């Protein structure tokens, strides 16, 4: 028999989802059978798999100890550097300036270094993340950007922040602005581009078309020209939809690929600039909540900006 009290970071989850995360040794079939047979009780009473857990709930499980046993964990995130560029931090959220070349989450080339591993290592050392005290939560990223794109990435320190911010991202209650250098000069100083984006998973790239097609998603990309140097333009871009590689592919589709972009650009132009990555940075973030944000209401209307955009000094030095 095991009894636990639901902590703040566990609250709000469905019972079955919580148990699956908290006790990976417990088979799904056994989990559902135990709930049906009342071997798992909530506050001493029968419960349903869809019951939403509340802070302070008492969960009692009359199951064999083997289902609760876990091997002592070696925390992989401790192998990652703690090096972070922090734009803003409080008790709930972090805004990080991710450098180009760093992955945000582990992938097939993962060697213990990613942005989320660095965040968890940093918070662990501060004593704000103690894995042994958590049943189902670990600090998590709220948004992501490409490996070779730099700029602001948000991280949640608790489950409530993650839940609220995931909703804000879905409902587009954030304004995200990017700086980029594109090849050529734009016909219009500012405009909103539209189109349809289709993702090819096997190629890890996307394709843009002017007309809808099965599987394609509509996209909107707003831009304004800030400067022109040589045969290049510095743009400020606002994503009105947030699709994979949207900025890179959208500008390439109209004949203005990003400088340094090895996937959607051209080698000749990339060699000319010498940029090692696509010249793209998520440089400004504004919280523009239109619905209640609970414990994050204090962020509404606030705006944050990165201090260093890696390609700007070189661009501005061009004749």
Q: Can you walk through the features of this model?
A:
This protein is α+β, with helices and mostly antiparallel strands and 319 residues long. The chain is 19% helix and 28% strand. The chain is built from 7 helices and 14 strands. It has helices at residues 15-22, 28-36, 115-126, 159-170, 246-253, 267-273, 312-317; strands at residues 2-5, 40-42, 58-61, 86-89, 93-98, 140-141, 150-156, 174-183, 190-200, 205-209, 217-229, 232-239, 280-287, 303-305. The strands form 2 sheets. Strands 4, 5, 6, 7, 8, 9, 10, 11, 12, 13 and 14 form an 11-stranded mixed beta sheet that branches. Strands 1-3-2 form a 3-stranded antiparallel beta sheet. The termini are far apart. The model has no long low-confidence stretch (mean pLDDT 93).
Which terms summarize this structure?
319 residues; alpha+beta; eleven-stranded mixed sheet; three-stranded antiparallel sheet; 7 helices; elongated
**SSE order in H/E notation?**
EHHEEEEHEEHEEEEEHHEEH
Number of strands: 14
List low-confidence stretches: none
Q: Percent of residues in beta strands?
A: 25-35%
Report the radius of gyration as a whole number of Å.
Answer: 23 Å
Please bin the fraction of helical residues.
10-25%
Output the number of helix runs.
7
Termini separation comes to 74 Å
Give average pLDDT, whole number: 93
Compact overview of the structure:
With 319 residues, the chain is α+β, with helices and mostly antiparallel strands.
Which secondary structure elements does this structure contain, and how are they paired or packed?
Elements lengths: L1 E4 L9 H8 L5 H9 L3 E3 L15 E4 L24 E4 L3 E6 L16 H12 L13 E2 L8 E7 L2 H12 L3 E10 L6 E11 L4 E5 L7 E13 L2 E8 L6 H8 L13 H7 L6 E8 L15 E3 L6 H6 L2
Parallel strand pairs: 7-13
Antiparallel strand pairs: 1-3, 2-3, 4-5, 5-7, 6-7, 8-12, 8-13, 9-10, 9-11, 11-12, 13-14
